[in-house]
């Protein structure tokens, strides 16, 4: 409790001070301001609600070293076509650089990049993944995962480690399936119509 003396002293100190007048209305703008925390919670809620449509899985990975080569071809790919890919003789129509990415970032980038390549009718390109030479354990983490991911995508027909001038064992050439439109054009062209 305050004494009369304390009350008197308070009133003397407050002499000349005018109270702030508040309007008799609610401040609507204040409730519409979004804090950084609210933005982050909204973003997290959207991400949780969005299903991951990326089929690339992080399963058992056979760890590869800096000089290990990547090589894969689906049944039906002719030997001469694969040799031309292996020698880097197809045009590099698109490039993706995965350096300094986490495994999850690389997984998303590879899926989105190859999906976009298919959408644009890209047939061949280069993915730069690094060799892992700077890793203390000398394991090429992204390259190791890429060796598992690429065969999981049915549109990837073949891939092989690049020639030295394109990054050697730190990069990989890839070949994609023809788009349905391109297959139709080839049918028309070679059927004589």
Q: What would the keywords be for this entry?
A:
Endonuc_SmrA; 40% helix; DNA-nicking Smr family endonuclease; Smr_dom_sf; endonuclease; 193 residues; Ribosomal Protein S8, Chain: A, domain 1; alpha+beta; elongated
Descriptive report:
With 193 residues, this protein is an alpha+beta fold. It has a single domain (1-193), classed as Ribosomal Protein S8, Chain: A, domain 1 (2-Layer Sandwich), CATH 3.30.1370.110. 40% of the residues lie in helices and 12% in strands. It contains seven helices and five strands. It has a five-stranded mixed beta sheet with strand order 1-4-5-3-2, sandwiched between helices. The model has no long low-confidence stretch (mean pLDDT 86).
Strand content: 5-15%
> In CATH terms, what is the fold-level topology?
Ribosomal Protein S8, Chain: A, domain 1
- Give unreliable regions as ranges: none
Q: Which class best fits the helix and strand makeup?
A: alpha+beta
Mean pLDDT: 86
Please give the number of β-strands: 5
Overall spatial form: elongated
Question: Whole-Å distance between the termini?
Answer: 102 Å
- Topology as a string of helices (H) and strands (E): HHHEHEHEHEEH
Helix segment count? 7
Q: What's the structural domain tally?
A: 1
Based on CA atoms alone, the radius of gyration comes out at 31 Å
How are the strands of the biggest sheet laid out side by side? 1-4-5-3-2
Largest sheet: 5 strands, mixed
CATH class: Alpha Beta
Keywords: Endonuclease, Hydrolase, Nuclease
Domain Smr: 96-177
GO molecular function, one term: DNA endonuclease activity
Pfam families: Smr (PF01713)
